[in-house]
Design brief:
Heat Shock Protein 90; 323 residues; DNA mismatch repair protein MutL; binds adenosine-5'-diphosphate; alpha+beta; single chain; 27% strand; binds magnesium ion; Ribosomal Protein S5, domain 2
């Protein structure tokens, strides 16, 4: 592979979960209603993402794997929106550089689709192929040609757990898309994709836990907060059940965690970590984009407004429950 692709790969592709993130985002961008993520051996042996989106036209299949080949608009608004858009047009090139890739794809305009295989970024073959509408991308033997990176991988079980956690997060951030997750042949998640956050939550957390959540609605200056928070009885012992989304994208933020936990403290609900699925709609100009695009950290320009939006939203949800 080209050195530049390997450098890009180092930035974009850290582990199986980062591959899954890019492939799922592409599927969602392509208008998928249903998508399946399948992994073997924690994603190190195989990752397969199948979608029913628009597909890739035959003459664009190879270009999709070139660096900076993107069919997506790069508007100023896009870039200002949030710092997690990924490196535009780099993901497929980066993934292909460090793995063996098979692509099967068909658009509605064609009866016959395309099958394309690459190894270490080099095209091995391209053929017409019968396939369903949409795209399937198979990524095998991640980092097979970069032993130094391979050494940094955790055990397959840990990589698989990271993929599963990510898919759950993605399913929660796209309630209108039906997600399936299959690990080593076993289906572990299926969301209905009916557009309701409550349905996605139910599927991700399971019935018992979902019942322990209460809805949140918060308004602040330039910020709207909606979603669910856990009642103390079902709080879990870790922050893995805290999901924050800003303008539809999963983020990590100490500020948001602090606002959430402060509301529980106010209600004397302390001890365990609360769980939440909170969607923030924030003005694009409120979000700082000078954060590494492949990471999920987010910075707000007016932290107080965002903090208050979450804090008071959660507080009134908890007060409604204790009243
Ligand atoms: P980006 O998503 O930033 O455009 P990528 O490297 O992730 O860059 O993808 C390159 C291009 O390949 C996309 O712009 C899109 O045109 C095409 N593509 C990738 N995945 C899919 C998919 N699942 N369905 C349809 N088109 C896709
Ligand atoms: Mg992409």
């Amino acid at each position: 592979p080209h050195v530049a692709d390997l450098i890009a790969a180092g930035e974009v592709v850290e582990r199986p979960a980062s591959v899954v993130k890019e492939l799922v985002e592409n599927a969602v961008d392509a208008g998928a209603h249903t998508l399946t993520v399948e992994i073997q051996r924690g994603g190190m042996a195989m990752i397969r993402v199948t979608d029913d989106g628009g597909g890739i036209p035959t003459d664009q299949c190879q270009t999709a794997f070139l660096r900076h080949a993107t069919s997506k608009l790069r508007t100023a608004q896009d870039l200002a929106a949030i710092g997690t858009l990924g490196f535009r047009g780099e993901a497929l090139a980066a993934i292909a550089a460090v793995s063996r890739v098979e692509l099967f794809t068909r658009t509605a305009q064609c009866d016959l689709g395309t099958s394309l295989t690459l190894e270490g970024g080099q095209v091995l073959s391209q053929e017409p192929a019968g396939c369903p509408l949409g795209t399937t991308l198979v990524v095998r033997d991640l980092f097979y040609n970069t032993p130094a990176r391979l050494k940094f991988m955790k055990r397959d079980a840990a990589e698989g757990a990271a993929v599963f956690a990510l898919v759950q997060k993605l399913a929660l951030s796209h309630p209108g898309v039906s997600f399936q997750f299959i690990r080593d042949g076993k289906r572990e998640l299926m969301t209905p994709g009916d557009g309701k956050l409550s349905s996605a939550l139910y599927a991700v957390l399971g019935r018992d836990m979902a019942l322990g959540f209460t809805p949140v609605r918060g308004e602040g200056e330039d910020v709207t907060v909606t979603g669910f928070v856990s009642l103390p009885a079902c709080c879990r012992g870790s922050r893995t059940y805290q999901h924050f989304f800003v303008n539809g994208r999963p983020v990590k933020s100490k500020l948001l965690m602090a606002a959430l936990e402060r509301a529980y403290e106010n209600q004397k609900m302390v001890g365990k970590f609360p769980g939440c699925v909170l969607q923030l709609q924030v003005k694009a100009s409120q979000v700082d984009v000078n954060v590494h695009p492949a990471k999920t950290e987010v910075k707000f320009l007016h932290e107080r407004q965002v903090f208050d939006g979450v804090y008071y939203g959660v507080l009134s949800a908890l007060q409604g429950e204790t009243r």
